[in-house]
């Protein structure tokens, strides 16, 4: 965190998890906290948000940033907070981003459905073929920018040489910071448009040639099975 902002937070006993929302009002940035305090500063809202944990705050409109874990529901561009306050979001929000937000915040049934989807794959935990389920992540323009691992069986963790704790709910490009963006394009196509897809590619992250079988288990998700391509046999010496 920027030293100036860190000093300001320390002075006013502010922690990121205590913030409900940050709004611009009368030329000042107002940081609204769980304990009822409102701490004002002339530091731009965007400057503060940039120093926060990625995806913890959502810019729903100009001068309004909400803590994502304190949003209760979204309806007709209105964001209802857990404390009862509500804020109007952008009226012309891109459809993909609207879908992503509604899936995250609105429906208990949708949340439970997501858990049920992931739990259904537990029967594959010990399958000897690497298998995972990934979920698309979007930016505020509705473009897919990353994906996170929602399920990975034991063979998948062996393939990646990572534990489940290191994989699950982590974004691909946080784990593999130099990962090729072409993986995202292929997975997004299946997750959004359905159907299935098979493609072959070299993965520099694990230094292996792979055949990847993908299909859409639910909208916004892509399930993938990985088969390692056998190495070409060495040519035999024939006289």
Average predicted confidence as pLDDT: 80
Q: What is the count of helical runs?
A: 8
What is the CATH homologous superfamily assignment of the largest domain? PAS domain
Low-confidence stretches: 92-96, 106-113
- Give the radius of gyration: 22 Å
The order of strands across the largest sheet is: 3-2-1-5-4
In helices, the fraction of residues equals: 25-40%
The helix/strand class is alpha+beta
Major sheet, described briefly? 5 strands, antiparallel
> In whole angstroms, how far apart are the ends?
68 Å
- Based on DSSP secondary structure assignment, what is the total number of beta strands? 13
Task: Give a written overview of the molecule.
The chain is 28% helix and 33% strand. It has 239 residues and is an alpha+beta fold. The strands form three sheets. A five-stranded antiparallel sheet has the order 3-2-1-5-4, with no helix packed on it. Strands 10-9-13-12-11 form a five-stranded antiparallel sheet, with helices on both faces. Strands 6-7-8 form a three-stranded antiparallel sheet.
